[in-house]
Amino acid sequence: MTRSTRRSRTVALTATAVVIALGATACGGSSGAGGSGAPGKGGTLTVLDKADFDHLDPQRVYTTEGSSMDEEIVRTLTGWDETGSTPKLVGDLATDTGTPSKGATVWTFHLRHGVKYQDGAEVTAPDIKYGVERFFSSDINGGPPYAGQWLVGGSDYKGPYQGKELDSIGTPDKYTIVFHLNQPVADFNETTAMPGWAAVPKAHDTGSTYDTHVWSDGPYMIKSYTKNKELVLTRNKNWSQATDPIRQQNVDEMDVRFGQDESAIDQQIKADAGTAQTSIQQWPIAGSDLASLANDPSLKSRYYKIPAPGINYLAINTTRVKDLKVRQAIEYAIDKTTVRGAFGGSAYGDYATSMLSPGIGGYQKFNLYSANPAGNLAKAKALMKQAGNPKPAMSIAVENTPTQEHFADAVKTALERIGIHVNISPIDAANYFSTVDNTKNQYDLTWGDWIADWPNASTVLPTLFDGRLIKKNPQANQDLSYLNDPKVNALIDKAATMTDVKQRNAAYGRMDQQILKDAAVVPLTYMNFSDMSGSKVGGVIPDTILAEPSLVHVYVKH
């Protein structure tokens, strides 16, 4: 699996979800609105990134930084309006969020009239169809798996470059697009908010080099792009605010510079001199800087603490640690205060008691175990006594980084107190997920984390806890607790076919509670990511879908 120090989303070979192979780089903070009053017009925003984007080609992008940048260049069928207290799905290229029919196996979208590309041509349904068909070409790889999984005929289709079309995407007229799915997908219109559901005009498609030539229908277009050095975006003069419910076009240019160390970027933006005043970062604050920057009152107005739709957790292998009482004892024994300390303290995130995090559809607030995050030693010892006071030795898998090894020490210290001896197994961080996801390598305890592709439980619980997938994906098993509970599996099947969002969310809430009743995992923290901007940057919206500082309303103060 690919790794990045920030949330590079890696494709899981499963029906509905994707892991973010997030290393132990801490993240966190306190949200700054970046100034009030009317946004200023003009000026240049500088974006400081430690590395270039894996991709900007909308059908290939699968990192949060790349996806966030693409929001400036391309528009998608649906999108997220994040100006309110919670993200709201809205039509973007489409006039609304789509119409499901035939039990959510057919989805129809009607397009806005008058949306223009950078050359003034109008965006049409065949352009979106062509864009989505690009997902299937072996030259255009790296993007999310949903089109291939869900569109009828997707498993055999090889993309548009041999002149073939995918019949399950219909365009009855130039403003209508219809998708035929091989299964009911109640939240398909949330998938279509991802960058790959963007229009690509066939005449301007440069195939595998499209990353540096993305044709814009958003507020900004590529002026110049030197890989690993600099990307400059300038205004798309044919973009119209009247057709775009999500974005604004306030600055004249965005100058994205690559290649500085994370800590150097932190210090530059903190110092707030020269161009740093009109700069922002997209990778999170370095773990070593987090606590000091998070607690610096002078940075408060330009520090963004963005809750990620994700969870940091400890999986308990239910096939190796078979006694429920022992697993429950582990739930009570873990001291989440020392665990969180290893990841950077309170700035890293709030203590977790469920696998779904606040802000994800299906989240319910509940706590089946210790009310005190430091644990309940007496209760843990009592459960071990009921289990016959075993003295087991258990292995714990973690990444071979200082942060993760401190985390493993915290777990070891807590469990030794109840008679469980812990052997720490550090695994090379670059190969961590490919190692623990291989069913040949089973540990008693495994560190994991997960970020949803869109804020719904359907991109979290089915992948992490459907025990039927273990055999299907022996080298890419995301069910690190090896849970195969018929009650959970039945709820997964039931939720998948529910088209009523409230009913479906209630089913996911019950599923979350059942998983915790099984004591299959110890939820540790609901993760945050922290970023900073200079003092003259305004209009930054904390994007809780991507856990990025959204630039859709950004402006520079004069």
Automatic annotation (TrEMBL):
Matches recorded under InterPro entries: Peptide/Ni-bd, SBP_5, SBP_5_dom
Pfam families linked: SBP_bac_5
Domain Solute-binding protein family intervals: 88-467
Signal sequence region: 1-26
Listed SUPFAM superfamilies: Periplasmic binding protein-like II
Keyword Signal (UniProt): yes
Gene3D superfamilies membership: Dipeptide-binding Protein, Domain 3 (3.10.105.10), Periplasmic binding protein-like II (3.40.190.10)
Sorted UniProt keywords: Signal
Coiled coil: none
Entry-linked PANTHER family: ABC TRANSPORTER SUBSTRATE-BINDING PROTEIN (PTHR30290:SF83), PERIPLASMIC BINDING COMPONENT OF ABC TRANSPORTER (PTHR30290)
Protein name in the entry: ABC transporter substrate-binding protein
Organism this protein belongs to: Streptomyces koelreuteriae
High-level lineage: Bacteria, Bacillati, Actinomycetota, Actinomycetes, Kitasatosporales
